[in-house]
Write a structure and sequence with these properties.
By secondary structure, the chain is mainly α. It contains 17 helices and 4 strands.
Length: about 425
């Protein structure tokens, strides 16, 4: 236990070391900040590029300020705001139902629902449930925290703190730390492991709170309470039936489960848990999901393959970053010719290149624009991870010029 605490403290010191004095603007730090998904050196580089009025990054900066400005006007988010209640009857429990499940037209009451893969039921994204709400919460906190970082304007940090306080801490609005009732299927099941994919939104919130920590928008005590919330949620992920099911998924669900476990374990100082899950990613996720040609077969079999391939690779990108923090080189890990790099190379072939050959339920997603847009985050990640290879850098630069305004450019600027 003592050794574990020493390692956790050492990691926190290392993560904070990358932050130079004055990086945040005029407000003095209340306590050292810690970063996990974000790389402080990359953020600093992006800040320099914006200050230099680099045309590759100014559209992203303008887009950030627009999103953050909108977020300033949004009311606080809380799971208690939904109009439908989960099977528990407790509105503090997160609740959603599967997006590809629809009422059975042959039944008077529509129950039980039937599955239509790739066809999104708009009723699953209304304020009646929490699926869209947690996404809006995460996006607002992320844009507000980044706006604070790039401008030094305290109002952005204060608003991000307000939103986080309502989601995690306030007794009247806080979310219970579980996803027992995520992606329920009306008439079939009250909740499923597959619903855990939704809480990936909480990964970005961790680094966002680290960005605003120097402002005191959340007190040190409140930050500790948020970490306690994440610790409780991680315990649920590791010990619940839903977590067991999701951890055994063979596609993007399993990879995003691993990404969440490692992220939350790092955030709460449980390094042994993080390392164990990285071992699972190394031994099971990479060779089980990426073939020798870089294809993610389980995603290519879906009705929206371009989106799903890139979605899965984003989870691998997170895991690669976390591996850096713990001395586990997933970027170069080669399991019988199965590598993350090959997955990126497979996608790169179709960025301003070959026509996407896989059938899509939505023709727009299979179009060059659809394929290109899905790939932006991954090409930026690959350019950072494999800096000696100009292919990824060139693809990423082409994408940023073709589709200006992506916030990812401010998190993963090109060297």
């Amino acid at each position: 236990m003592i050794a574990s605490r020493i390692r956790a403290a050492a990691l926190r010191c290392c993560l904070a070391a990358g932050l130079a004095a004055g990086l945040y603007g005029p407000v003095q730090a209340a306590a050292p900040s810690q970063f996990y998904t974000y790389d402080p050196a990359e953020l600093a580089l992006a800040k320099q590029r914006v200050a230099a009025r680099d045309p590759l990054y100014l559209p992203s900066y303008d887009s950030l300020l627009k999103q953050a400005g909108d977020a300033l006007g949004h009311k606080r988010y809380g799971v208690v705001d939904k109009s439908l209640a989960p099977a528990s009857g407790d509105r503090h429990d997160f609740f959603s139902f599967g997006p590809y499940w629809w009422p059975d037209p042959s039944k008077k009451d529509g129950l039980p629902y039937i599955r239509k893969d790739g066809l999104h039921n708009p009723a699953s994204s209304t304020d009646a449930t929490d699926a869209a709400r947690i996404g809006r919460f995460s996006r607002d906190v992320t844009s507000l925290a980044l706006a604070w970082y790039f401008t030094g304007e305290r109002r952005y940090a204060d608003k991000a703190g307000e939103l986080a306080r309502a989601w995690f801490l306030a007794p009247s609005t806080r979310m219970n730390p579980n996803l027992e009732y995520g992606q329920a299927i009306p008439g079939r099941v009250d909740g499923r492991g597959i619903g855990i994919i939704t809480s990936r939104n909480l990964i970005d919130v961790m680094d966002s709170l680290a960005l605003i920590q120097p402002t005191g928008a959340l007190t040190d005590a409140e930050n500790a309470q948020v970490r306690s919330w994440y610790r409780a949620y991680l315990d649920w992920l590791l010990n619940s039936r839903n977590g067991f099911e999701e951890g055994n998924a063979h596609n993007n669900h399993g990879t995003w489960y691993s990404a969440q476990v490692v992220a939350y374990a790092l955030y709460t100082g449980q390094l042994d848990v993080a390392r164990r899950e990285l071992d699972i990613a190394r031994i099971r996720r990479i060779p089980g999901q990426i073939d020798r040609e870089g294809k993610l077969i389980a995603e290519l079999e879906r009705t929206r393959p371009s989106g799903y391939v890139n979605f899965a690779l984003e989870a691998f990108g997170n895991l690669g970053r976390y591996g850096e923090l713990l001395g586990v080189n997933l970027w170069q890990h080669n399991e019988d010719a199965h590598t993350i790099e090959q997955g990126y190379r497979f996608v790169a072939r179709y960025v301003d290149g070959e026509a996407w050959p896989y059938k899509e339920i939505d023709a727009k997603e299979g179009s060059p624009d659809g394929v290109n847009r899905h790939a932006i985050r991954n090409m930026l990640t690959a350019a950072r991870a494999y800096r000696d290879d100009p292919v990824f850098r060139d693809k990423a630069r082409w994408l940023l010029r073709r589709y200006p305004g992506e916030l990812s450019a401010l998190i993963l600027p090109l060297r």
